[in-house]
Amino acid sequence: MPVAVAYPLLMGLWAGLRGRAQGLVFYLVFALTVTLSVQLVGVYLVFASLIVPALATRRLRPWPGLVTGYLVGTLGYAGGLVASALWDLPSGPLIVWTLAASALAIAALRSCCRSSVNR
Prior knowledge:
Elements: H1 3-15, H2 20-41, H3 43-56, H4 62-87, H5 91-118
Helix pairs in contact: 1-2, 2-3, 3-4, 3-5, 4-5
């Protein structure tokens, strides 16, 4: 089943449910999305896309963590695709490297800002 068909159908089902059933359908959608994504782009890219933004935001409160996670993901994917187009290199590994680089850059920026506030 194509991702473009499965995902909207399952999200529509999830939106109409409440309570425990909603949690169950969420995990079903998550499992199917990860499985279908692995078939499309590979384990390496899916694993990095899930783990790197989460690691970059592990010590942040919920709202700043969500914004930072989206920022890491956006910078990583955009940077990886641009670098891939510029240098004619495989996009998957470049996306993973730029995800890691953006997470490290944001961590360094947070550390720098935190240390300047504490002075």
